[in-house]
Amino acid sequence: RVRIPLPVSNILWEHCIRLANRTLVEGYANVKKCSNEGRALMQLDFQQFLMKLEKLTDIRPIPDKEFVETYIKAYYLTENDMETWIKEHREYSTKQLTNLVNICLGTYINKKARQKLLATIDDTDRPKR
After folding, report:
1. What is the pLDDT of residues 39-81, one digit of tens each?
2. Does the CA dihedral 71-100-43-27 come out positive or negative?
3. Residue 56 in contact with residue 128, Cβ under 8 Å?
4. Are residues 46 and 35 in the same domain?
5. Residues 66 and 91 in one domain
6. What predicted TM-score, i.e. pTM, was given to this entire model?
7. Are 68 and 81 in a shared domain?
8. How many domains would you assign to the chain?
9. Domain residues for 103?
10. How does DSSP assign 45-105, residue by residue?
């Protein structure tokens, strides 16, 4: 056994938590189909994850917690709100944003509206390149 100093342990936990949260969002972005029940389960799963994590570590606040919560909540946005949300949340990848448009709004909006939102994603992504 090797004793790890608390500050080092906290840094390791922080990196692991951040990676786990980023992986959750990436997993949600790979969803092919999502019902209202599926969205609710995403939230429930993440809350369970946070409860277990809070028992394992004393790190507060949980790193990137808002990153995951914000992404899950975006599944509930309307077409008009989604355009604004896309412009305000550049921390998500093009793939993650595209999936939100195609999966959560795909069946509720027409092709023209979907293309407009996808163009917004492309326009938002261009300055980063």
Report:
1. 889 899 999 999 999 999 989 999 999 999 999 998 888 888 8
2. negative
3. no
4. yes
5. no
6. 0.85
7. no
8. 2
9. 77-128
10. HHHHHHHHHHHH---SSPTTHHHHHHHHHHTT--HHHHHHHHHH-TTS-HHHHHHIIIIIS
